[in-house]
Fold:
Amino acid sequence: MRHRLHGLMLAAASAVGTVQAAEPAAQTAAPPVAAAYDAALAQRTGADERGMRRYVLVILRTGPTPVKDAAARQAMFAGHLANIQRLSREGKLALAGPFGDAGGDWRGLFVFATVDIEEAKALVASDPVIQQGEMVADYHSWYGSAATMLTGELHEKLVRPTP
Structure:
């Protein structure tokens, strides 16, 4: 699994390098326009001098006891989504979402705004999919953009209201 995650990161880095290498020299000659540093935003997101911060990345995988009953499964996933929303509102969960590869072992991910894996384990333990054995979690320290902390508030602006 660790190799799969590294492979995804390497593939993304390779793709960026390939696109940059394919650009004609004339187009890359002009220096990039620097964005204005926002000290308040950096502080709010926990950014270091590189605009990065530490997180705990959690990979949710298929667990040993899938919930088969349709009503119980629906209730479990409703609780799962409510738990995600609660943790996001509390500023503890920076990012979450399912994987789309049907039949794969990886079900979803969480990115927690903490450097402490034990704290992340306690947060994950509050989730019904973990409590019922539908999923299990793998924990990894991760260093990524502090802008990840803005995902929740930006996401709320993208959700269309239901009529």
